[in-house]
Design goal:
Largest sheet: 6 strands, mixed
Strand content: 25-35%
Shape: elongated
Structural class: alpha/beta
Distance between the termini: 35 Å
Order of helices and strands: EEEEHEEHEHHHEHEHEEHEHEEHEH
Helix content: 25-40%
CATH topology of the largest domain: Rossmann fold
Number of strands: 15
CATH class of the largest domain: Alpha Beta
């Protein structure tokens, strides 16, 4: 069974961008990255999946439950971290965490303690006095402490310093190894490349690609960097060339997915000073798609 499954899921705001006919499948036990720039539709997708906003058309199931008719069951079974964290004013950190556990009738004191220690939380501070990063830490504890079957995290690392980001992903990997499905949105491609098994890329409210991360990295496209003078007109005439913004007077850079023999013949005829042919990073591949 899939932990998340959508069929033409659409949320329209009239002329404003929402999400458009999303087909998304997240297998149980997966570590899934949902990637796109700000405004691409990531948060709208997540809020629609959780029943926090109603879809315009299409359908979706989360943990086998319909997002419209069974949203209370979904919220009972998952852990959710929104992109912006807010708590009741005047609460202490320990009260906010306990309140979240009590809402789920969960007894998880040992796990609460472990998470708070690893994230460096001061339980006696008031939530109103916390920085963005520390509020995010409280939200992480609230989302994870009851060991949910599915964790849905919206831009979870914003506000966390690099060391804390690493510890956070260590926690997520442990939860995943214990059977939790992880679904998190991000605009930072390196997070997906380093931690996720599967990823989907969203642009202007549509999924443009979804696959195993290892497959996404092996597109057949090469990144070519040429040092020295080079005839740009000959390069432009070669099929399969996509220029990059990193070219300058000394270097010519481009992505290439055409006939390799044709490229080698062109390079040999121009006699450049140096040639580098590498695999492009995941970020380079998909920034090219977004542009």
């Amino acid at each position: 069974m899939n932990a998340i499954e959508t069929n033409k899921l659409t949320k329209s705001y009239g002329k404003s961008r929402g999400i458009n006919e999303l087909h998304l499948a997240v297998a149980e036990g997966d570590f899934f990255g949902f990637i796109g720039p700000n405004g691409a539709g990531k948060s709208t997708t997540i809020r629609t999946l959780l029943g926090l906003i109603s879809p315009t058309s299409g359908s979706a199931k989360v943990l086998g439950y319909d997002i419209v008719s069974e949203k209370e069951k979904i919220l009972r079974e998952i852990g959710y971290l929104p992109s912006e964290i807010n708590f009741y004013s005047g609460m202490k950190v320990k009260d906010a965490i306990k309140y979240s556990a009590d809402l789920r009738h969960a007894k998880c004191i040992d796990k609460q303690k472990n998470l708070c220690e690893r994230l460096g939380l001061d339980l006696n501070k008031k939530v109103d006095e916390l920085s963005l990063g520390n509020r995010k830490k409280v939200g992480i504890v609230c989302a994870i402490q009851h060991s949910p079957k599915l964790l849905i995290l919206d831009e979870p690392t914003s506000g966390l310093d690099p060391l804390m980001q690493k510890e956070f992903f260590n926690i997520l990997m442990e939860e995943n190894e214990q059977g939790s499905t992880i679904f998190f949105s991000s605009h930072i491609l390196s997070e997906v490349q380093n931690y996720c098994h599967t990823a989907a890329f969203i642009k202007d409210g549509r999924i443009i690609m979804s696959d195993k991360v290892e497959n996404l990295e092996q597109t057949g496209t090469k990144k070519v960097t040429i040092t020295g003078q080079f005839d740009d007109k000959k390069l432009a005439a070669l099929s399969g060339v996509t220029p990059t913004e990193s070219s300058n007077n000394k270097q010519t850079c481009f992505f290439y997915n055409g006939n390799l023999q044709a490229l080698l013949e062109l390079l040999a005829s121009e006699n450049p000073k140096d040639i580098t042919i590498t695999e492009p990073s995941l970020e380079e591949i998909f920034m090219n798609y977004y542009e």
